[in-house]
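[job 0412] stage=complex_fold ligand=S-adenosylmethionine status=START
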Amino acid sequence: MEISLGDRLAESIRDDGPMAFGPWVEACLYDPDGGFYAAGGSAGRRGDFLTSPEVGPLFGAVLARWMDARWEALGSPDGFTVVEAAAGSGTLARAVVAAEPTCLTEGRYVMVERSAALRSVQPTNAMFPGVSLSSVAHLADVGCISHGVVLANELLDNLAFGLLEVAGGRWHEVLIDREPAASAGEFREVLGGPVDPPAPVDAAACDPGARIPVQAESAIWVDTALGLLGVGSVLIVDYTSTTSAMAARPPSEWLRTYRGHERGDVPTNAPGTQDVTVEVAVDQLPDGAVVATQAEFLGAHGIAELVDEGRRIWEERAHLGDLMALRARSRVTESEALLDPSGLGGFTVLEWVRSSKVRSQ
Ligand SMILES: C[S@@+](CC[C@H](N)C(=O)[O-])C[C@H]1O[C@@H](n2cnc3c(N)ncnc32)[C@H](O)[C@@H]1O
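[job 0412] stage=complex_fold status=DONE, emitting C-alpha cells
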C-alpha cells in the first residue's frame, strides 16, 4: 500500500525531530508522490486559483509587446530567447505565441515548469509550426541566454519559504512537529531557537507572535536567472509586500492556502492537498529592479490599444458572432480584471535589466 505524504512527513519528524517550515512547504507543494503540484494542482478556471494568464489571452498579448520592445532595444538580434518560468500548463505560452511577437520569428520560447503533470499538457512545437517552442523542468537546463528575457508570473510566491515568529523579544524559527498523542497525520507548529531575521526588522519592537517569511529561495532564483542572462531582462509579476509590513499584519493575510478556488486550511493540515503561497517580500530580493504595478506595466505596453482594437473588431463582426468577434469582445472584460487596482492590477512587476543598451519603457 502506498504511504501518504502526511504519513511520510510524520515518520520523518518522528525520526529526525521537528522540521523547518521551508522543507515542509517544499514537500507539501512539490513532493513527487503527493505534493500539490505533482498531484495535478494548477492555475486556471478548472484548477485551484485564477492568475492573469488564465483570465484570457490579453495578458500574453501585452507581454508579447514587452518582449518585442526589449528585443528592439537590443538591436533586434536573431536567436532572441524568451524563457517563461512557472509555465504551468502553457496558457501564457499559447497566448504569447498566438500574438506573434516579431522577436520569436528567429528566436525561441522555452517553458520552464517543475511539475511533470503540467509539462505533459503544455503546447508543443507540432501545434505551432514556425515557432521554436520547448519545455524543461529547471531553469538551469536552459543554459546561458546571450540575449533574451526571463519572466515568471506568480512563481516566487510559490517557492518554499521559512517562517520566523517573535517570542521573548527575539525572532525564532517556526518548525513543524507531530501532534503529541494524535494520529500519525496530524501536525502542529513549535518554535525553534533564536535566529537572525532575513531583513532588519526589530523583534523587540514587534508584538509577541508577530511573524515574517524568509524568502531566500526567491532571492536565489532571481540571482540564478540574472546569472544566466547576457543582456536582456528578468521580469517577475507577483503579489508583494515588505518584511516589516508583514511583521505588522496577521500572518493569515499574507500566508494563504487555496484549494478548488476556495481558501484552504492552515498550512499544517492535509499536506499536499492545497496550494501554500506567500506574499513576496521585495526587500529580500536582489536590488536594482524597476518596479511598477501590473496596471502601470500593462498600460505602458499597450493594453488600451489592444482593447480598442478588440472593440473595433467586435463592432465589425458582432453580426457574425464568430470566435474572432467573441475573443475581441472579451478583451474588454479581461482588461477590467487585469487592471483592477484591488486585484490583479495591484500586483507588482519587477524588472531587472542587464545591459546599458536596453531603454526602459
Ligand atoms: C502559482 S503557479 C503559476 C502558474 C502560471 N505562471 C500562471 O501564472 O498561471 C506556480 C507554478 O510554478 C511552478 N514552479 C514552482 N517552482 C518552480 C521552479 N523552480 N521552476 C519552474 N516552475 C516552478 C509550479 O509547479 C506551478 O506550476
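Residues 5-42+160-217+245-280 form one domain.
[job 0412] exit 0
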